[in-house]
Design a protein that fits this description.
Layout lengths: L16 E6 L4 H12 L4 E8 L3 H11 L3 E4 L2 H10 L7 E4 H9 L6 E4 L7 H9 L3 E4 L2 H18 L3 E3 L2 H10 L7 E8 L17 H4 L9 H9 L1 H14 L6 E5 L5 E7 L4 E5 L5 H9 L30 H12 L3 H17 L7 H12 L8 H20 L3
Helix pairs in contact: 1-11, 4-5, 5-6, 6-10, 6-13, 9-13, 10-12, 12-13, 12-14, 13-14, 13-15, 14-15
The structure holds nicotinamide-adenine-dinucleotide and magnesium ion (MG).
Magnesium ion (MG) binds next to helix 7.
Length: about 400
């Protein structure tokens, strides 16, 4: 959605925006809690969900006075219910249905989806249908089902506020500019943990190596995605849907400092950039307070010191996942869903020590090679393609043992 088409805020001025946070115990979740705590006069947390870390969730509920919580995992839910750790009067919900119920809470204004992978799809669609603002960190769901999510948001007239830093940056640069004037967008990529590794060393790369991100502190899956650059590939596809762009208009560049988050190039060749320190509190704060702005949680970039901005092209040979993502985006249909599903399986297998690092692009390439692509007519079509790709990738991963 173009920021220029933004709807008026559903929250009356002067009252606090009520936030539901799905993925509260994760890296984005923790940053969101800092933003909410720093803007207690403007934001109120009213619902939280996590996969299985119910102790962490109970602590958040106590600290923020939250009375609606959901635990996805059935075993963890049972433990949470019996623990007595949640504040008196907490309504504890379970599973996918619990998340969906939270995202449609009548009192909620905005639902922040920061669930890793695609489990946030249903709750996100439910939030859109319920007319909530959707603050979206979970890029995988746009890659899986961007067509259907954007259609639903258009139909219902709901607003999608990107949290992914590059997309939040594009959103800010587009504000007040008609989409027709945009020639292309350039998303910046740090290059991940292996940016400076000699290519021949990559075959020995371990999960611990891949998890050492040079600039950002994030969850495990996305940190590995940064090391392969799959993350930037997913982000190109995410941008295509969020901003209604053609694949050829979505590009990326290596920028090792992670201070410039995007460049938007207009038809006259002029570019706008968005800058902020590499901390997710900036985009989260922007999305949650939108359209207002308020004093920051963290200080801005300090130009009293030497600050460098370097840019270099992405080497597709070094980053095969970027090539596969770009090919999937250009092919369209269910190819992006297959790319995403096979990547999730491969990254989990790598993190579990079951496959080497360089098997990730091979598993994803094989999954795409097995797919007869088609234009999905329904959400059920993409979900079936996702399932099929996961099954194939799981089998493929076993052969790398
Ligand atoms: P993380 O692994 O740190 O946290 C994931 C969170 O999701 C946890 O709270 C976990 O409990 C929850 N979760 C997982 N499965 C769930 C389920 N089925 N039901 C309910 N909760 C579930 O991940 P993260 O780094 O915070 O990333 C979250 C999402 O945000 C990902 O899609 C990622 O691509 C995106 N994102 C993250 C960053 C970042 O800086 N971390 C930046 C941009 C985008
Ligand atoms: Mg990003």
């Amino acid at each position: 959605m173009n920021a220029a088409d933004a709807l008026p805020s559903p929250t009356p001025r002067g009252s606090r925006k009520r936030v539901v946070l799905l993925g509260a115990t994760g890296s984005i979740g923790q940053n969101a809690l800092r933003v909410i705590a720093s803007h207690a006069d403007r934001l109120e947390l009213v619902g939280v969900a996590a996969h299985s870390n119910w102790r962490g969730l109970a602590e958040i509920a106590r600290e923020h006075g939250v009375r609606d919580a959901a635990v996805f995992d059935p075993g963890a839910f049972a433990d949470a219910r019996d623990s007595g750790s949640f504040p008196e009067g907490t309504r504890l919900l379970q599973g996918a249905a619990g998340l969906t119920e939270l995202s449609t809470l009548p009192k909620a204004d905005v639902v922040l989806v920061a669930v890793v992978g695609t489990a946030g799809l249903e709750p996100a669609l439910a939030a859109i249908d319920a007319g909530k603002d959707l603050a979206l960190a979970s890029k995988e769901i746009l890659v899986l089902a961007g067509k259907f999510i954007m259609e639903a948001a258009r139909r219902r007239g709901t607003r999608i506020l990107p949290i992914d830093s590059e997309h939040n940056a594009v959103f800010q640069c587009l504000e007040g500019h008609p989409g027709a004037g945009v020639r292309r967008i350039v998303l910046t990529a740090s290059g991940g943990a292996f940016r400076d590794w000699p290519a021949e060393k990559l075959r020995h790369a371990t999960p611990a190596d891949a998890l050492k991100h040079p600039n950002w502190s994030m969850g495990r899956k996305i940190t590995v995605d940064c090391a392969t650059l799959a993350n930037k590939g997913l982000e190109l596809i995410e941008a295509q849907w969020l901003f209604g762009l053609k694949p050829s208009q979505c590009t990326a560049v290596i920028h090792p400092q992670s201070l410039v988050h995007c460049l938007v190039e207009f038809n006259d060749g002029a570019m706008l950039a968005q800058l902020a320190p590499s901390s997710m509190v900036f985009p989260i704060q922007h999305a949650l307070l939108y359209p207002d702005r308020a004093g920051g949680v963290e200080p801005p970039i300090d130009f009293t010191r030497l600050v460098r901005f370097d840019f270099s092209p992405v080497d597709m040979g070094r980053y095969p996942m970027m090539r596969l993502a770009t090919e999937s985006m250009t092919a369209g249909g269910v190819a992006p869903a297959v790319f995403n599903a096979a990547n999730e399986v491969a990254v989990e297998a790598f993190l579990g020590g079951r496959i080497p690092f360089l098997a990730i692009p091979r598993i994803v390439g094989n999954a795409l090679g097995r797919t007869s692509n088609f234009e999905p007519g329904s959400l059920a079509d993409v979900l079936a393609a996702d399932k099929e790709a996961r099954r194939g990738a799981e089998a493929d991963a076993v052969s790398f043992k």
